[in-house]
Amino acid sequence: MVNPIHLRTLLEVTRRGSFAAAAQHLGYTASAVSQQIAALERETGVVLFTRTARSVQPTDTAFVMARHAAKVLTDLDALLAAATKSPDHATRELVLGIFPSLATYVLPRVLQTSAWQGLGRRLRIRVGEPPQTIQGLRSGGELDLALVFQVGQSGLAWPHTLHRQWVGDDVFRVVLPHGWGITDGSRMTASQLTEMPWIMHHPGTSDATVIERLFASCNLHPQVVGYSDDFNASLALAAAGLGAAMVPELVLKHSKENFVVVEVPEIRLARTVFALRRQESGQSERQDAASEDASLDLFVDLLAAAFAEAVAD
């Protein structure tokens, strides 16, 4: 399904003639606008802009799609406006389960948007790790929506009865202490990092299992000097000289610690962020949940746009 946030971005780019002008109007960075347009091109399978070193030019398809996008967005705004005028809308809550780094670096961006304020929902949140959060979505749980991540293609699992919506991919990077004398951005091999001191996830966790298998596959055998499941703590300890660490971009981009990031081609890993919610099984339940689903879909779209912006900053 095409993301309406991406359609709004397309409309502004075609109206204003550049990614930079659209970014200024929408409150994004130019890089975030570029990423949203690239995502829209992947979603639709068509080229919307021709890019050169100096400019971007909309294709005829972009102008046609922008005209249709204007109508779709107008209808969506009308739908949301009608929803906010319903008798019970003003008192409805969104009970959200969310993991710490998303609550720290992404959710505040969403709450500052006019689109969120237009939803007219009261927010209650439960900050916790994904396994804990998923429990709140099981039968009888209080959560409306759970924001979780899965590292690699395995690890965290959830019941097949939950509806899943992709939010974004958060790439892991290898971080080294600045005091090791390695230049930021250096290209290294996994063998050069073996036997070095490392800060790792606690053994037995799903994240640790995936990372351990990845390291074993490229013959990297770390000398473990610490265990930490908190990325901010791992980054601070790495910056202080304790050892190397794997840290996702979302945390990395917002840290003021003094560290070095290196490129290791053998180490390719990301945590994929998903929004999960229960699926109503009965016909009457599905009918009652239709407006709620539209509201949650829009919230997740806002979150995905804020996530892309936070990683691009």
From TrEMBL:
Any Pfam family: LysR_substrate
Keywords: DNA-binding, Transcription, Transcription regulation
GO MF, any single term: DNA binding
Keyword Transcription annotated: yes
This protein's record includes keyword Glycosyltransferase: no
Domain (HTH lysR-type): residue spans on this chain: 2-59
PROSITE patterns (alphabetical): HTH_LYSR
Family: Belongs to the LysR transcriptional regulatory family.
Protein name per Swiss-Prot or TrEMBL: DNA-binding transcriptional LysR family regulator
Species: Arthrobacter russicus
Lineage start: Bacteria, Bacillati, Actinomycetota, Actinomycetes, Micrococcales
